[in-house]
Amino acid sequence: MDLTNLKVAIVHYWFLDPRGGEKVVDALCELFPHADIFTHVFNRKMFANLAAKHKVKTSFIQRLPYARKATAYYLPLMPLALEQFDLSEYDLVISSESGPAKGVVTREDCIHICYCHSPMRYIWNKYAEEVRSTPAMLSWPMRLSAHYLRLVDYASAARVDQFVANSTAVARRIEKYYRRQSRVIFPPVDVSAFALAEQEDYYLYCGQLTAYKRPDLAIDCFNSLGLPLRVIGDGELRSTLQKRARANIQFLGRVGDGVLKHHLGRCLALVFPGEEDFGIVPVEAMASGRPVIAYGRGGVLDTVVDGKTGVFFSESNVDALTEAVRRYQSIQDTFDPKSIAQHAKAFDKRYFMEQMTEVVRDAIDVQSRSGHRQS
User: Fold this and answer.
1) 188 DSSP assignment
2) Which architecture characterizes domain 3-189+348-374 according to CATH?
3) What is the pLDDT of residues 281-295, one digit of tens each?
4) What is the Cα–Cα distance from 190 to 58, expressed in whole angstroms?
5) With a cut of 70, which residues of the chain have pLDDT below it?
6) Which of these, 93, 218, 296, 345, could form a disulfide with 312 (CB 3.0-4.6 Å)?
């Protein structure tokens, strides 16, 4: 079966900053180098390489005021914007979903595969938290738009022929909110790009400094313990966190890949206090031979083995994280960097490529057999 003859479209919610979802799109573009890209908002400066290799088409959201800075405010318009894309010439559509992406309208015989990073968190599993954190003046507009988006999101799930989830946790959400089964394929991680290094005396937090990633837990925990913590990342909480951090905590901001690899390879352990759908950074840390101290929910349950490649804490609070750090200190000599790095190889990019190719081939085979039965 020659996949190169397929006319392929890849639909991604938006391209603002290079993050995990965009790494998935990069891998899909390697599988389908002639694919066209469809998205709501595209930052051409940040994704110049992608724009140079692929035809990129944006929705009308791109032309609205402050589209790149206030993308989330246009969420209620995105289902309509998706339906304006003309995908009638494509044989295969792959949507990359955690915001609105799967709601496109396709040809009857077009295969639509949705790689789901998560059903939209802010209208499903994290909705109550979003309501609590929304200012009173915006609360009711937010509630009304979320109600509308849930109806549209559930309906758009029926347009997908095959769901692929990026973790077991996300597969459960797909079944819960869409009543659909999915296949779990972990996101691509370039495991071979990371190497073992000599350990130094610091812990590491790496990620956006935004509320749902819970960097505040790491700051408060290490304020209390007085242990050295280095923080890689930026976000709206950086100023607040820096003001309350003590001298043992160092903020490095955004860094390049080389600096990131340097710190991952030499830290005592990666501190991962938030709940992630998958979590690429813990896999990168393990590929560097370093253990992970993680909140034991979400994607880390697929990737981290408690007591073997890291330590879990079960409650999302400072006391639980502090106890986990102390537990790690008590058993840190039992962690073997080579064994941890070997474990991380199970999440290498090549498995993503192989399994996504298999999903596409299976979907084509199902469609072919279905077509024969109908004729």
Assistant:
1) P
2) 3-Layer(aba) Sandwich (3.40)
3) 999 999 999 999 999
4) 29
5) 1, 371-375
6) 296
